[in-house]
Amino acid sequence: MKTTLRGTEVFYGTGTGQAGLNAPTVVFVHGAGFDHSVWVMPARYFARHGYRVIAPDLPAHGRTGGDPLTSIEAMADWLAELLGEQAHGPAAIVGHSMGSLVAMSLAARHAERVNKIALLGTSAPMAVGAPLLEAAADSHHAAIEMANTWSHSMAGSMGAAQIPGVSNLVSGERWLERMAPGVYHADLAACHHFSAPLSALSEQPTLIIAGGADQMTPARAGLEVAARLANVQTLVLPGCGHSMLSEQPNQVLDGLAKFILE
């Protein structure tokens, strides 16, 4: 679907659903350098379970125009505006990696827009190493190679996948290669400088899904976030890397379905 926000064309996936006027809403927020297409499987699932699905391409990502936003707070405010136009009532917000930070910020800054949050591959803070930031600042392909390698478990790096014939490692690299110059550095810098407002989220119903073999945001980092929240559920996926949406899509969907539909 397409709409216009702040004078710029915005694209968001709907899971090809036909939601009723009063249908509950679920929002999927992608990670650094990616776009709505990482959410195809869960978007379709929830659309077919009667949900209004909104999976936006953030500014300068995918099929959305404009310049990249330079802070997590700016992304959250932009998303709040989009939901004000497209959602009916508060929504369940699901974010992966950078998207998990956007979900946190949205829940803290615009609580009236949110009824649940699911944080996948999260960490607070989410510091980014200098070599990755510097390579991204130079738009060097090494930034993609580093991040993509670190995002996969040993099995994922060797080509194992739940979808026959698909290489998660190669797919991840091709996804990131579609970015416009400057986008990756803006995303990574926003993650690096974000201060998570966890005290504002203590009572928010929250699910944290962590990959047991995640090298980017280790499971312990996600569990440390969980320890600071009062109304939280956790799910650790054994052997799963940061790219959990491609490495263990069925397990991720099972966790989201149980949390959001219950």
Itemize the secondary structure elements and their pairings.
Layout: E1 2-5, E2 8-13, E3 25-29, H1 40-47, E4 52-56, H2 72-86, E5 91-96, H3 98-109, E6 114-120, H4 130-137, H5 141-150, H6 154-157, H7 168-177, H8 183-193, E7 206-211, H9 219-227, E8 232-237, H10 244-247, H11 249-261
Parallel strand pairs: 3-4, 3-5, 5-6, 6-7, 7-8
Antiparallel strand pairs: 1-2, 2-4
Helix pairs in contact: 1-11, 2-3, 4-5, 4-8, 5-7
Describe this structure in words.
This protein has one domain (2-126, 195-261): 3-Layer(aba) Sandwich (Rossmann fold). 40% of the residues lie in helices and 17% in strands. The protein has helices at 40-47, 72-86, 98-109, 130-137, 141-150, 154-157, 168-177, 183-193, 219-227, 244-247, 249-261, and strands spanning 2-5, 8-13, 25-29, 52-56, 91-96, 114-120, 206-211, 232-237. Helix 1 (40-47) links the parallel strand 3 and strand 4. The chain is globular.
- The helix count comes to 11
The radius of gyration over CA amounts to 17 Å
Listing every helix as H and every strand as E from the N terminus to the C terminus, the arrangement reads EEEHEHEHEHHHHHEHEHH
| CATH architectural label | 3-Layer(aba) Sandwich
For the largest beta sheet, what order do the strands appear in spatially? 1-2-4-3-5-6-7-8
What summary fits the major beta sheet?
Answer: 8 strands, mixed
Our estimate of the beta-strand percent is 15-25%
Cα separation of the termini:
28 Å
- Overall geometry comes to globular
Extended strand count: 8
Note poorly predicted spans: none
What is the CATH domain class?
Alpha Beta
Q: Structural class given helices, strands, pairing?
A: alpha/beta
What is the helical fraction, as a range of percent? 25-40%
Q: Considering the protein shown, what is the CATH homologous superfamily?
A: Alpha/Beta hydrolase fold, catalytic domain
Mean pLDDT: 95
Instruction: From the 3D structure, determine the CATH topology.
Output: Rossmann fold
How many domain regions? Answer: 1
